[in-house]
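Hey, I'm writing a tutorial for new members on how sequence and structure tokens pair up, and I'd like a real worked example in the thread rather than a made-up one. If someone can provide the structure for the chain below, I'll link this post from the tutorial.
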Amino acid sequence: MKPYAITEHATERYVQRIKPALTEDQAQTELRRLLDMAGEPSECEPAWAKPYFVQEADAWVEIAPGIGCPISIEKRCYRVLTVITIASCPPAAREARAAARRARKAQRKFEKRAERQIREGRRPAEVHNPIFAKNRTPNRKAA
């Protein structure tokens, strides 16, 4: 495994976002230890980072749940670009992630209900997803 080269920016962000009581040297030592324990970088970013992290990275290392480091792969080392946390995620991105989670949950609930209705020999409901259906107008019979 290649060694990690930690940028000054990554060390500053670790102190700012994770451990504000540490000095820069202590933070760099701790960050290096966490990176060594995390192992090889992954090509895909953590799911929580996708909605808001715009900087391109060659790889990612998640050093703890909700704490990740984008990595630049170089010939002799992995360069740690910065440290981000799920808590540093902007409110708009958090809300978008929560809305997507609610939509998936509603869709799963609808699918289970439809499967149960089919098993019971009933016709499943017409509306596919209550979240998307709220903007629809109900079908009205002509008088």
